[in-house]
Known about the structure:
Elements: E1 3-5, E2 9-15, E3 22-28, E4 37-44, E5 51-59, E6 63-68, E7 75-80, E8 84-89, E9 100-103, E10 109-114, E11 121-126, E12 131-135, E13 143-145, E14 152-157, E15 164-169, E16 174-178, E17 186-188, E18 195-200, E19 207-212, E20 216-221, E21 230-233, E22 239-244, E23 251-256, E24 261-265, E25 272-276, E26 283-288, E27 295-300, E28 304-309
Antiparallel strand pairs: 1-28, 2-3, 3-4, 4-5, 6-7, 7-8, 8-9, 10-11, 11-12, 12-13, 14-15, 15-16, 16-17, 18-19, 19-20, 20-21, 22-23, 23-24, 24-25, 26-27, 27-28
Amino acid sequence: MPMFKAPFNGYSVKFSPFYESRLAVATAQNFGILGNGRIHVLELAPGAPGVTESVAYDTADAVYDVCWSESHDSVLVAAIGDGSVKIYDTALPPPSNPIRSFQEHAREVHSVDYNPTRRDSFLTSSWDDTVKLWAMDRPASIRTFKEHAYCVYQATWNPKHGDVFASASGDCTLRIWDVREPGSTMIIPAHDFELLSCDWNKYDDCILATSSVDKTIKVWDVRSYRVPLAVLSGHGYAVKKVKFSPHRRNLIASCSYDMTVCLWDYMVEDALVGRYDHHTEFAVGIDMSVLVEGLMASTGWDELVYVWQQGMDPRAS
């Protein structure tokens, strides 16, 4: 399966919603603690195991996350360690990039997510305990959401309701927000330890998954959230990212500091349905292609990006 070796440590990988062979990778020097960052735009070679880099953008600080625009096929947004949010257009020559840079967050920007229904706005979450709402055509953020008491590691839009999003924080809570409301509409004390990520089910807009330092993934129904629908145990260390499949209602992918990527069917008793141990350092980024069913990608601190089909060995050529 295709593999790419980056010069820095991987943090995030995202498939393009427009081109099935294109993906973006966020990386950081020195494990994101100190140093530069780089964004790689990669192309999968048709009918071949290779991955080629079409363009790369250097940054003065770590890049923790990246997402593709849902309205412009060449535009991506990056979350930077210096508190900035940068916009790149791959259709323009590298010296013309970034085309925009927003500097509002007081600390590292840790996640970025483009609105999949409205397609005109995006969210960022930060270690400054806030979430911000942005639009491409605005010179500053539209709104800041400040309720969390610690780092907000991820904010992600509901797949069906363009005004609703969820945020996962180190304050151990999952919060549900509606941008039309003055504050959060729901607070779920999801774990006893830090939440590191969250994601919505793509087929049921009331179901979310959270992952935590406590090594577990929990699945929640916002209509009745006193008890989780499922608790998925199997990782040996903190679960860095969790992602619902865009093609199968019950399928969840996760990656962990135990260096593995796991697949889960949260509706069955033996929920762990796949484990991949191809990374040799912390596995911190995971994605599943919207355009190609079963196509997955992961990245980690071993500076590697893997792209593979579910059921295959990511290391097989």
